[in-house]
Design a protein that fits this description.
7-stranded antiparallel β-sheet; 16 strands; 2 helices; 2 domains; globular; single chain; 257 residues; 9-stranded antiparallel β-sheet
Amino acid sequence: MKNARWLLITLCFLFAMSGLVSGVLAQPLQRALVLPPDHLMATISVGATPATMLPTPTATTPPILAQDTFQRRDQALWGRASDGQSWESDANVQAQSFFIARSQGVIMHAKGTFNAILGPISSNVEVTATGSVSHFGAGQVNFGVVVRWTDSKNWYKALINGTQFVVLKRVKGVTTQLSAQPFTAQGNTLYTLRLQAIGGVFLAKVWPSAMMEPVGWMVNVTDTSLTTGQGGVRVLVQNDVIVHLAAFSESLARSQV
């Protein structure tokens, strides 16, 4: 009986100790089983997005409608541009005045106003041309780009004439000056002209091609007379004037106002 009593006391003590140990260790054991190790927790940040879910930035370039680098053999007329399209108006008719020479478009032996048109009929466009004039003089010589050109009586034009940067419109044969500001241009110096048309807003700038393009626009005018047409180059020249065109492009316009 005595041994049985000691055995019962021993079993009760062991059961009591087992419950105490379980209570002390239960919570740490549960955390260890449920939570990741500390070095894994350190790599998890609240709100993080997997790299594969992040959008990839894309650069967009306005579609080119017409382009000519003039990199082709010497020839009479301007012929087919580097983009495969053919020049229109005087550039492919006046063989005595329009040439390709030394990888440039040339206009010479001419007096009056001449047009070189390239590309499809469009509305919202940006036209850029780089060229030079052998010499300017007394408002009788200018070099410019046109947008929404329909014929010689309907167009918008940005030009340099030696002393000014001018934006004109011609509608049904009547020419109206939309803007004019001082700009000194030298003979035999390359200048780049840019004219943009978006709806009824026209933006324009000019700069020496050897310098950086100005950030802002020099001209901002509004007119709704003409809504569509082609792009190109339009010049006023005299017999002793030579115009060289180094590059031309027309693209769909992207607003930079």
